[in-house]
Amino acid sequence: MTLFEACAYVGRENQTGTRANILVIEDHVDTGIWLGRALQDQDFAVRWERRPEHALLALGEDPRPDAVLLDLLMPGLHGSFIYERIRENQALTDTPILVVTAMADEDLPVWNDPRVRFLTKPVSRQAILESLDTLLQA
Amino acid sequence: MPSQQSRAALIRGAFRGGTALGATRPPSPSVQILKTSLLHAGVSRKQFVQATGLSYEYVSRIFNSKVKFPTVRETLERFAEVAQIDPMMFDEYRQLVAILPDSTRKVWARMQELGLIRQDFAGKVDISRTYMYEILRGDVPFPRNPEVIEKIAAALQLAPETFGEYLAPVIDWAERNPQAIEHVFLNMLVSKMLVARGYMKAADTPASQLSDSLLGMFPPEERLDPFVPKLYAAMGRRKMDLRTLAVEADVEEDSLRLLLCGQVVPDEVVDVCKAVKSRLKIR
């Protein structure tokens, strides 16, 4: 199984011994793989969805994500739409969301949501892990 | 003067009521079609003989169904041309065409456009004349060897991509590696970004046809580490695309793409940065 496939499927089954289930919503193929690898190295269970519409379906499936890594600029659906669907979901109203986007600072959405953090690309592995830890511990 | 369509209708109508009396073999419907169309075109049998270069006796035997109606493609096309009809009106011609692969049909169509007969064409292509004839007759599949296709295409003044078989290996590869398509796409997008940001001169490449909105995936310039714009500039000066740079610097293409797409900071791909810096002589 390639890493590409592995990242797409890890986390679909309940995993024991992992720190948390992370749903990664990222359309860029290299970034998705890189994020998957970075998170798996830190014992996170990763489910990576590359298409926004598939990500919407994933939100309703078990295991529910403990946190979501969300890209904003994706073909077909903007990440803001996914954010709204996440918050509409009773089971995910408090789920931490780490937005990782290439968007210019002035274009970033204002959600006034304490369970959301923004990181702008280019990013480092350390920044992602630290932000995720902060969100999960809050 | 009847139009081409009404002429065809007249000929078909004439054929439906016609018979070849005294014939020694079941007459081919094409005989009557040919006779009627010659009549409509005002072409006498003598003129037909002269125009086709066949003997008067042989033509008479064809017209009387004493010999089999020709099945050689060029003969049928010549008959049709003299009779001012579409050769597809002949059953024999339709059967010939039906068995041909698409690419072979394209070869015949282009030969017609260029006014090339089979012998001339076979002489222009640097492959065995026998093999070329087999291809044209449809006795063998259209070649899949890119070199052979390139030779055929050159003789016809066509791009080799005209023939589906030329791209077949690429399509096979793409179907086996769906990720690869995205990599090719992202590489093109990097080239487009280099042009859009003024690092590279615009060129008429497939990248220029991509939508500008796709450039939104690249972070703003001011957010990038200073090394990355230097890298863009060096690539632009050398008119170098991502794949070429990855090969020449001997680095993983996906890591280089992460960097050039502005997805990660240079510290995440230190080895890649070192290698491309050295290859492009960036200070």
Number of strands of chain B: 0
Main beta-sheet annotation of chain A: 5 strands, parallel
Which class best fits the helix and strand makeup of chain B?
mainly alpha
What is the ordering of alpha helices and beta strands of chain B? HHHHHHHHHHHHHHHH
Rg measurement of chain B, Å: 30 Å
Give the low-pLDDT segments of chain A: 1-14
| Rounded Rg of chain A | 14 Å
Oligomer: heterodimer
Question: Roughly what fraction of the amino acids of chain B lie in strands?
Answer: under 5%
End-to-end distance of chain A? 36 Å
User: What structural class should be given to the helix and strand makeup of chain A?
Assistant: alpha/beta
Q: What is the tally of helical segments of chain A?
A: 5
What's a quick, concise take on this entry?
Chain A has 138 residues and is α/β, with parallel strands linked by helices.
Question: Which key terms come to mind for this protein?
Answer:
heterodimer, A: 138 residues, alpha/beta, disordered N terminus, B: mainly alpha, 16 helices
Describe this structure in words.
- The complex is a heterodimer of chains A (138) and B (283).
- In chain A, α3 runs parallel beside α4 (79-88).
- Residues 1-14 of chain A have low confidence and may be disordered.
- The longest helix of chain A has 13 residues, at 29-41.
- Chain A is globular and about 35 Å long.
- Chain A has helices at 3-9, 29-41, 52-59, 79-88, 125-137, and strands at 21-25, 45-49, 67-70, 97-101, 116-120.
- Chain A is an alpha/beta fold and 138 residues long.
- In chain A, β1 (21-25), α2 and β2 (45-49) form a beta-alpha-beta unit.
- Chain B is mainly α and 283 residues long.
- Chain B has helices at residues 4-16, 29-41, 45-52, 56-63, 73-83, 91-98, 102-114, 118-124, 129-137, 146-155, 164-176, 178-196, 227-237, 242-249, 253-260, 270-279.
- Chain B starts with a helix and ends with a helix.
- In chain B, 29% of the residues are buried.
- Residues 15-23 of chain B have low confidence and may be disordered.
- Chains A and B meet through α2 of A and α12 and α15 of B.
